[in-house]
Design a protein that fits this description.
about 130 residues; alpha/beta; Rossmann fold; two-stranded parallel ribbon; 4 helices; about 30% strand
């Protein structure tokens, strides 16, 4: 799978057919993510990947407030931040509600490995152009 991380803002990462650790297939799945900060500076200084609780949204600055600022603990003046809404959550990624509406069957169980594989897609941003491998 080859995808490109958007420069800034909230985007959907089209996953296509995602096969879970248990062998279930989430057809046409997507992962909603957000990028904030200086993408150009991140190419030189590095990206920051923020994980959150299942019920948290990808709006890092909304729940960590003053920590996310130029010169702050999460320095968006020197770095870009990528945060995703996990699959199965309620903030825009493929979820049980959207899945059942489209597929007419129960949402598959997701493992920690399934979620980690998705986060790896976001963390594999290349310094040469923001395309995860």
């Amino acid at each position: 799978m080859s995808v490109t991380i958007a420069a800034t803002g909230t985007q959907d990462l089209e996953l296509g057919d995602f096969t879970t650790e248990r062998g279930d297939i989430l057809a046409n799945a997507w992962l909603r993510y957000r990028v904030i900060g200086d993408v150009e500076a991140a190419q030189e200084n590095g990206w920051i990947l923020v994980f959150h609780a299942l019920t948290g949204s990808a709006d890092v600055e909304a729940w960590w407030g003053p920590l996310v600022a130029p010169g702050g603990a999460i320095d968006v003046g020197r770095h870009a931040v990528v945060s995703a809404n996990l699959l199965g959550g309620c903030y825009g990624s493929t979820s049980p509600i959207t899945w059942q509406a489209r597929q007419g069957r129960r949402f598959p169980r997701l493992s920690s490995l399934d979620l980690a594989r998705l986060i790896c897609l976001l963390s594999s941003i290349s310094a040469s152009g923001g395309s995860p491998s």
